[in-house]
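User: Okay, second chain of the day. Same drill as before: sequence in, structure tokens out.
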Amino acid sequence: MKITKEIIQRIEGEATLELEWEKEQVSFAKIKFFNYRGIEEILKKRPLLDALALTPKVCGICSHSHAIASVLAIEECFKSAGESLHVNQKAKDIREIALNAEKIQNHIKWYFFTILPELKRVSDPTYKGNAFKEKQWFQAQRAIMDSLKMGAHFTGQWPHGSFVMAGGVTCDPLRSDLISAHGCLDAVIAFCEEHFYGMSLEEFLSFDSALQVMSVPSALSFGIDEMLKHGFDRLGRSFDRFLALGESFMYEGSLKASKTTVLGADVKYVHESLDHTFFADKNSGYTYSKSAMYKKSFCEVGPLSRLMVAKEPLMRDFHRRFKDAALTRVVARAVECAHLLWRTKALLQSIDLKEASLIPPKKEIHGLSGEGVGVIEAPRGSLIHHVVVHQGIIESYDIITPTVWNLGNGDKQNPSTAQKALIGLNSFTKADFVLKSFDVCSVCTTQ
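Assistant: Same drill. Structure tokens below.
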């Protein structure tokens, strides 16, 4: 049996993909993450509010996501101690705007700086890419900056902002902040309409057929054509099993979907595994990435999962044609980006600045004892923070990230979501692209 090992480039952090080959096809894969920063351990014995400053440091891409998941866990601690906090709609809207800004910039960055260059490399293995010769790279980067500036009107900075507090948010924006944020968002929408979708946002969101998207010249239709050319409409299929545990404006409650059937889900059925990690056995383990399962099954999380449980018509049509192939997974991020742009525009128009941004807890946090779970939908999928606190001091803190769901490691009898998608491929280049279709984040995974 032949085994190959390659460092995965153009991802957040570092990872290695080890492939086992039989008869010129991938028979099994090991996804290895070698970084470890120990943030969960660092948080132990620290004051509870330190979590709001330290957990955003987990990731440079989704730091607001970690801040929001952390504050939700802290608010749950208050609830378990007998005080249910009231968070005004204004604070909820600001949290969602910040989270949407993070998702929008991530989706644009991932598509234009990872997917498109990778597709060119699949066509031409000698392709290196040159940002100074590709005008679209600069335009995409400008859109990313505008998205982040839009969010920073409420969060103060990006990344690693600490803009949330138990009971609300710390900012108190003015009307001028809203006007400026609108301007930034309009610039992002203009870029997406001209380059990403090749049509107005409203027209794109009205589509319910893959053929409608593919018939309009755009960066998205170009990517779809390239993926079809190289067979990614059939490659990269996994279990066709989706999970979305956090809230969304597109659906209500925690949901799971097996193919097209959507059912309720509950975070209490989440199980974290240390199998194959250095934590379980430093000699036989091969990664610092834990694995997450729902009722002992691996499930895919992320934009495709969110749109499948939301029964989004356009993604349902892509799924009907291509199942959960790499192509469908890639297109889902573009489609979700359009919905996020539309939703954020509505939030900026409706937010009530007269409401209080923060309603502080009555109970003194330094004497707080309890337990809390915060769950949100981060750019890459369901993110869970679980904290146990005693007299205001953190006893334990556990973080389950989206990459742990998608790219944890199972075994040959029960492969993980990404491992299942890799088995059967006949080249490393294709395996590399399929792995990246999950939007790999090493630093989140090995926080």
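The mean pLDDT is 94.

User: Thanks, on to the next one.
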